[in-house]
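Annotated sample (chain length 279).
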Amino acid sequence: MAKRILLTAFNCRYSHSCLALFYIRAALKTHLPDWQPIIRQLTINDPYYDTLLKITGDSSPLFIPVYIWNAGLVARLVYDLVLVQPGRIVVLGGPQAPVLTGLPENCTVVAGPIEGVGEEFFQDLEAGTLQSRYQAQIGRDFPYPYEDGDFSGELRNRQVYYESSRGCAFRCSYCLSSVDTLVVRKDLDRVYDELARILRHQPMLIRFVDRTFNDMPDRALAIWRFLADQPGTTRFHFEIAPDRLTDEMLRFLETVSLDRFQFEIGIQSTDPATLAAIN
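Output written by the structure step:
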């Protein structure tokens, strides 16, 4: 019988999904093909006792991605897990995991992307001898994370997250994304193919999680043109910087149908004059 391993996320709301879980599943299937990864998505607003019962209803190894919005909940859960299941393997990853302090001895922290973790991690996981911390290499290629069954399962009625690039080109001292000093961009033909695979299932929204999607304006415009030509009613969300919008991009956006694209446009600064100017 395949050994189960639980991949559990705590999202802000039900309509969200956790991209990291699907990357973790892909890595586990590559390195530990005899294991059975099970994805479970909960929210930070679920009743705590019910959440604890769901987590402790199984003694399989547990993976949890940690972000700024769920770090407090995850810390509380792992402390309670030590009392209820003292020998259980718990692996924490994500941007906030390395900064959690006072974790129980049974917790392992993976710093960095799962694709950059060495073979030693998976060997130790299989042997039940995990160390307290593993450092992953950044800048590795990352796969298409989804399977067709996800869209009628864990992704049904949820927003689908996608990244055509990973890492950030900027070095803002106050942002965790600046920790990754390398930017890895997928080839455009590969991006088109992966987006077409997702769009076959017509999700309500695809959220690009590229850090400054329009950092390379020509590349961003090429992806916009591809998406605008696709049939269906799926909306697309992008995080962009206003100073990277070109006249050609603005002219193109005038031709895109309403409710097709949505933007998260930010000016991030700690300069008092800039903050005053943007109110």
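Annotation: The chain has a mean pLDDT of 94.
Annotation: The two ends are 60 Å apart (CA to CA).
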